[in-house]
Design goal:
Elements lengths: L1 H13 L3 H11 L6 H8 L2 H15 L5 H13 L2 H10 L16 H8 L3 H16 L1 H6 L4 H5 L3 H13 L7 H10 L4 H7 L3 E2 L2 E2 L27 H7 L2 H8 L1
Antiparallel strand pairs: 1-2
Length: 246
C-alpha cells in the first residue's frame, strides 16, 4: 500500500499541474510572442501537446512561425494519436505547396520539419534548378535571367516553408528585409547573415551553421562565388514586392 502511495505522489510530481497547463494555454492564445510557450508546452507531455493541437485547429489555416513551431512539436512527438490528428487535418503540413510548374515541394517541408536544415538547403537549390528548367538541372546552378522568370507562386511557397519552419529566422523574404535595411549593400549583407568573415567567404558546408543558432537570414544559401547577379535577381523579384504591398 505504501509503495502505491509513493508512486502516486511521484506521478503527481512528474506531471504538469492543470493550473500550469491552463495558464500556458491562456498565454498562448493571447501573447504576441508565442514561440517560448509552444516550446514549453511541447515539453510537458500529453497535456501540453493537447493544447498545441487545439492551437493548430484554431490557427492552422494562417501559417506563421508559431503555427510552424506547433506543428513541428506535434510531428516530432511521434504519438499515434497526434499522427492521426495531423494526417486528418494537415496531411500536407501547414503550408499550401502551390506551384505553377507542378513542382513537388514536399521534400523541403519534410526536411525542415525534422530540423534537417542542410538537407532542406540542398533540396531548395535542387527545386530552384528544376524551376529554371532542364539545362539548369544538368549544370546544377542558375542564371540570373532564369530567376527573373520564376513564378511568384513557387518562390513564395519555398519562402513560406523556410520562414514558418524556422521560427521566422530563415527565408528569401527575411534575407531581402535585411538587405533593404542595409541600403541594398550586398557586402554588408554577406557579413550580417554569416556568408563572409572579413575578406573570406564562409566555406561550404562545414563553416555554415545548420541549426537555429545561425544568424537571422543565414539560410537558404546562394552561391556568391559565381557573382552577385543571381542573388540580386532573387532579391528584386516581383514576388516580394507583391507581398510587401499587402
Amino acid at each position: 500500500m505504501a509503495s502505491r502511495v509513493c508512486k502516486a505522489e511521484m506521478d503527481n510530481i512528474n506531471s504538469p499541474s492543470t493550473d500550469k497547463i491552463t495558464e500556458l494555454q491562456e498565454k498562448l492564445f493571447s501573447t504576441k510572442k508565442p514561440l517560448p510557450i509552444i516550446s514549453e508546452l511541447g515539453s510537458l507531455g500529453e497535456d501540453g501537446l493537447d493544447v498545441l493541437m487545439s492551437f493548430l485547429e484554431k490557427e492552422g489555416d494562417r501559417p506563421t512561425p508559431a503555427v510552424g513551431e506547433a506543428y513541428i512539436e506535434l510531428y516530432l512527438a511521434k504519438s499515434p494519436k497526434i499522427g492521426e490528428f495531423l494526417q486528418e487535418n494537415f496531411p500536407e503540413g501547414i503550408i499550401p505547396l502551390k506551384s505553377e510548374r507542378n513542382i513537388d515541394y514536399s521534400p523541403i517541408q519534410q526536411a525542415l520539419v525534422q530540423r534537417k536544415f542542410q538537407e532542406a538547403d540542398r533540396l531548395t537549390l535542387l527545386k530552384r534548378c528544376e524551376l529554371a528548367g532542364e539545362q539548369a538541372m544538368q549544370r546544377k546552378w542558375i542564371y540570373f535571367t532564369e530567376v527573373e522568370n520564376f513564378p511568384s507562386t513557387d518562390l513564395k511557397t519555398m519562402d513560406q516553408l523556410w520562414y514558418c519552419y524556422s521560427q521566422g529566422k530563415f527565408g528569401f523574404s527575411v534575407q531581402r528585409k535585411i538587405w533593404l535595411s542595409l541600403g541594398q549593400d550586398f557586402p554588408k549583407l554577406w557579413t550580417k547573415i554569416g556568408w563572409k568573415k572579413g575578406n573570406l567567404w564562409t566555406r561550404y558546408p562545414n563553416e555554415f551553421i545548420w541549426d537555429l543558432n545561425a544568424p537571422v537570414g543565414h539560410l537558404p544559401l546562394s552561391n556568391q562565388l559565381r557573382g552577385v547577379r543571381e542573388f540580386a535577381s532573387l532579391m528584386n523579384h516581383p514576388a516580394w514586392k507583391e507581398s510587401e504591398k499587402k
